[in-house]
Each structure stands twice: as structure tokens, then as C-alpha cells.
Design goal:
CATH topology of the largest domain: Cyclic Phosphodiesterase, Chain: A
CATH class of the largest domain: Alpha Beta
Number of strands: 12
Structural class: alpha/beta
Radius of gyration: 26 Å
CATH architecture of the largest domain: Alpha-Beta Complex
Largest sheet: 4 strands, antiparallel
Strand content: 25-35%
Number of helices: 8
Distance between the termini: 52 Å
Number of domains: 2
Length: 285
């Protein structure tokens, strides 16, 4: 019987699980790659019309693209698998498709709930035991697999082997709001100008401060903790921050704008340079 299914392919997992899947998962011989199933079974491929594809696209568009990792081994009675984290976006896609196509519940309605998984061994409990033990050892040695889900593939089997039928691109995830701290010496001309320009941007929360004890606002522990990104006007400002807040700055990007103290507040040339350089560094308009 011809069937179809929705799946998220995970090529990044192949180095970790490829040989185990060839040994313990019969679907490999049917050209099924490493994947996380979203919905199976789905309808006969012959019945999938452009209208069906559009209905599926609308359902999947509720979930933006996302990053996930595979670092934990899970078990069903005769299956060993890798559990994707976070699981929620996979579950959301499954439920959205099931809601859009109520005649096709996940796994034909045989199981309660939805447990996203990347199957590595299936069909035999002893094989699943062996695969699970090997997966645990490999993960301990190499760490989790990291991947991005940017698309869902509709695959079909009407010939005895699985092949791609349609690819649904997921919408891009909205850019996160970032806390941007601008630093100059006295927090008088350059950094307040940068704050005023960029605090209006919908994706930025902006603050400014100075490194001098006599600054209008001297940079504080609270400022450093708050910031996701720190933009300093000169190299000397970066050096002073590193000297005073060494441990707190671990993992926080600091960018030097190379803007000298030659401008007054909201000087048109300063505004132009800040719009250009900051937009380029943060990759926003």
C-alpha cells in the first residue's frame, strides 16, 4: 500500500548513527535517512493534490525554524532512539498536521501522546539494547549532535522505496531582542548618541555608559550583566572593561567601533558612522 509521511531529515546525525542504523534499522535499505518523524502514516501519494500541500504548508508555518540537539538516548520496548531537545517544536508540528488532517492521527492513533525521536534501532529488543549502549558511549566521547530544523520533507513510498515528494521551508524565527551597551569615556557625546539612535530599533534595547569615574554614568556591574553585546568606541575602552570586569565579560562579545572623540552629541557625521558600523556588526538595518 502506497503511503507518505512528514519527516525532518538530520544529516548531522549520520556520522554518529549511520552504521548503527544500517545494522539495526531496516528502513535504511528503503532509502530512509536519519530523521525525526513528524507525522506517519499520511495519505496515498496519488491523493496528494496542490490543495493538500497548501493545507500542510499552512499548518507547518505555525512553527518557525529552530535549533535542536540530540544528546540523550531513549527507549521504546523494541526501539532505541535519540531524543531531540527541545521536543516542543516537533510536537507542535505533529499536532498542527494532525489537526489539519484529522483522518491521519500520529502513528494511526496507536499510541497516546507524541514523543519525537530519531530511531537508530527498531524491531528487536536485544538489538535496541546493543544500539542504546553504543549510543551512550559515543555521546559520552563526542558530545551531542547539534542541528537546525529549517524544513520538513514529505516523503512517499509508492514503489517499495522512500523518496522525497515535497519540501516545506519553515519560516525564519524572529530575531531575538538584544541588550546593547554602548561605551565611551565620559558618556557625554558618543555613547549617548549611539543609545539615542538605536534605542528606537524594535530588536534592540540600548544603554550607554562611560569608563571614566567622572562619566555622566559610569559603567557598572549591572550594566555588564544586562548587556548581550558591548560596543566600545575605542580600544582603550575595551581594555578598561576587561581589566575591571574580567570574569563577567566571559562569553560576552565586545566590538571596537574605532570612533575617535572628535564629535559632539548627535553630530551628523557621528550619527552616520554609528548607523553604518553598528548595523553592520549586529547585522540589522
Amino acid at each position: 500500500m502506497a503511503i507518505s509521511a512528514f519527516a525532518v531529515k538530520v544529516p548531522a546525525a549520520e556520522p554518529l548513527v549511520g552504521d548503527l542504523r544500517r545494522r539495526y534499522d531496516a528502513t535504511v535499505a528503503l532509502d530512509v535517512p536519519a530523521h525525526v518523524t513528524v507525522l506517519v502514516p499520511f495519505m496515498d501519494p496519488a491523493l496528494i493534490t496542490p490543495e493538500v500541500l497548501e493545507h500542510a504548508r499552512q499548518a507547518l508555518n505555525r512553527t518557525p525554524s529552530f535549533a535542536f540537539s540530540l544528546g540523550k538516548v531513549g527507549r521504546f520496548p523494541e526501539t532505541a532512539y535519540l531524543a531531540p531537545e527541545p521536543a516542543t517544536p516537533f510536537i507542535e508540528m505533529t499536532l498542527a498536521l494532525a489537526d489539519a488532517f484529522p483522518d491521519f492521527p500520529p502513528y494511526g492513533g496507536e499510541h497516546e501522546g507524541v514523543i519525537p525521536h530519531l530511531s537508530v534501532a527498531h524491531g528487536n529488543a536485544l538489538d535496541a539494547d546493543a544500539a542504546a549502549a553504543e549510543l551512550e558511549a559515543r555521546l559520552l566521547a563526542s558530545g551531542a549532535v547539534h542541528a537546525n530544523c529549517t524544513e520538513v520533507t514529505l516523503i512517499e513510498n509508492s514503489s517499495g522505496r522512500w523518496q522525497d515528494m515535497h519540501v516545506f521551508r519553515l519560516p525564519k524565527a524572529p530575531a531575538p531582542m538584544r541588550n546593547v551597551l554602548f561605551i565611551c569615556s565620559r558618556n557625554q557625546w558618543r555613547s549617548p548618541t549611539a543609545e539615542r539612535i538605536w534605542r528606537k530599533h524594535p530588536l534592540i534595547s540600548a544603554r550607554s555608559a562611560g569608563t571614566s569615574p567622572n562619566a555622566r554614568h559610569t559603567v557598572s556591574v549591572d550594566d555588564i550583566e544586562w548587556a548581550d553585546v558591548i560596543l566600545v568606541m575605542e580600544e582603550k575602552h575595551k581594555s578598561r572593561l576587561v581589566a575591571e570586569f574580567t570574569r563577567m565579560l566571559e562569553g560576552k562579545p565586545i566590538h571596537v567601533l574605532d570612533i575617535p572623540d572628535d564629535y559632539k552629541y548627535m553630530d551628523p557625521e557621528l550619527v552616520e558612522e554609528l548607523e553604518r558600523s553598528v548595523g553592520s556588526i549586529l547585522e540589522i538595518d
